[in-house]
């Protein structure tokens, strides 16, 4: 797999078609939940930034898709089955991705960012 990506499109195209479809669904979900966010590559993975600060990253791995927000405590129970070691989420590729949960987390993160920028 290519090691250096300039765009999210390049990143997604480096994966098999079935994984590309999942990555695109996550991308669209994030974009709808945070239409003001800007797409970038950061740490060589797809990232959405809001007001210059990271909102959320996502990435494909061998058996799962990782979502990297600092997971809000408000979702602790809902994310427990997907919890990774550092607050990230791991969605198994062999199961449906909980896009509604992704959407709600991103909306929550947008509200956090807006609240911080007012202070």
Characteristics of this structure?
single chain; 119 residues; alpha+beta; Aspartate Aminotransferase, domain 1; 5-stranded antiparallel β-sheet; 4 helices; 39% helix; 24% strand
Protein described:
The termini are far apart. A hairpin with a 2-residue loop joins β1 and β2 (45-50). The protein has a five-stranded antiparallel β-sheet with strand order 1-2-3-4-5, with helices on one face. Helix content is 39%, strand content 24%. The model has no long low-confidence stretch (mean pLDDT 91). It is an alpha+beta fold and 119 residues long. The chain has one domain (8-101): Aspartate Aminotransferase, domain 1 (Alpha-Beta Complex), CATH 3.90.1150.
Give a short summary of the structure:
By secondary structure, this protein is α+β, with helices and mostly antiparallel strands.
Provide the residue-averaged pLDDT.
91
> How do the SSEs run, as a string of H and E?
HHEEEEHEH
Rounded to an integer, what's the Rg over CA atoms?
Answer: 14 Å
- List the uncertain runs: none
Structural class: alpha+beta
Number of domains: 1
Beta-strand residue fraction? 15-25%
* The level-1 CATH class: Alpha Beta
Outline the biggest β-sheet: 5 strands, antiparallel
The third-level CATH topology is Aspartate Aminotransferase, domain 1
Order of strands, widest sheet: 1-2-3-4-5
